[in-house]
């Protein structure tokens, strides 16, 4: 008996890092998983690993910044498996730690498109489906940058803070509709996310002083599977009374 038996779950950003670990873990626990990402090669790798274990996964290319692709992703889950029980809004990219005075429009818009608007599209589509079928669960993957001011740049910090608002509002608005919505706030975790911010050797002295100095008190870096285990709890019925929570998963880094 698995903790996710027969539940249909979409995981965005499922080809790498935390999302990949979530996909593998949810499958092991009996879920039917739609793994969405923009990286076809890594989706193929995931599919290969899953097949080698004798399991099946549905993969789909979906750029969450594109509303139509997000709606198609949700529809694909419903068409394939007949319903949608869980949406994990996990896909995300980082900024390059720029404070507001250094944020360029292009970078701001990209972070908002992916880390905020993309999750909005997914939450809206999922909630509309949940209301038709009588309930469902949303797990947003935020960040401690969504609850603290100095863990990233201005745009990422703003997008992740906005995700707190969307999580709480959705939890409240649909609490009587058998819909739950919670957010994980991971701290530093070993994944491929550094690919999105690239070389940091030339960052400003302000970033070194205000952001990197603080990182020195991080107790340790997490492994992606540790965040996946939190997502599993929030996605499963074990968390049936948990709604509107922001769960930090950072070894206590943000407790300071
Ligand atoms: N790694 C960390 O230290 C850390 C800390 C706090 C929060 N987070 C959050 O965790 C989540 C997962 O990130 P990760 O660390 O596993 O990174 P990762 O780069 O290993 O994985 C992210 C995945 O999202 C995909 N992706 C990126 N843009 C996308 C888009 N527009 N549409 C669909 N898929 C897209 C990437 O291709 C990748 O496969 C993100 O929301 C991130 O903000 C990460």
Brief description of this entry?
The protein has helices spanning 17-28, 40-52, 67-81, 105-133, 154-173, 194-197, 205-215, 224-235; strands spanning 8-12, 32-37, 58-61, 86-89, 136-141, 179-186, 189-190, 222-223, 246-249. It is an alpha/beta fold. A 7-stranded parallel β-sheet has the order 3-2-1-4-5-6-9, with helices on both faces. The chain has a two-stranded parallel ribbon with strand order 7-8.
Small ligands present:
nicotinamide-adenine-dinucleotide
Number of E-type strands: 9
**What would you report as the Rg, rounded to the nearest angstrom?**
17 Å
Instruction: Give, in spatial order, the strands making up the sheet with the most strands.
Output: 3-2-1-4-5-6-9
Order of helices and strands: EHEHEHEHEHEEHHEHE
Mean pLDDT: 97
Largest sheet: 7 strands, parallel
**In what range is the share of β-strand residues?**
15-25%
Our count of helices gives: 8
The CATH homologous superfamily name equals NAD(P)-binding Rossmann-like Domain
Helical coverage, percent range = 40-55%
Work out the count of structural domains. Answer: 1
CATH fold-level assignment: Rossmann fold
Q: Identify the overall geometry.
A: globular
Protein model, in words:
There is one protein chain. This protein has helices at 17-28, 40-52, 67-81, 105-133, 154-173, 194-197, 205-215, 224-235; strands spanning 8-12, 32-37, 58-61, 86-89, 136-141, 179-186, 189-190, 222-223, 246-249. The protein is an alpha/beta fold and 256 residues long. It has a single domain (8-250), classed as Rossmann fold, CATH 3.40.50. A seven-stranded parallel beta sheet has the order 3-2-1-4-5-6-9, with helices on both faces. Helix 1 packs across helix 8 (224-235) and helix 3 (67-81) runs parallel beside helix 4 (105-133). The structure holds nicotinamide-adenine-dinucleotide. Nicotinamide-adenine-dinucleotide binds next to helix 1 and helix 4.
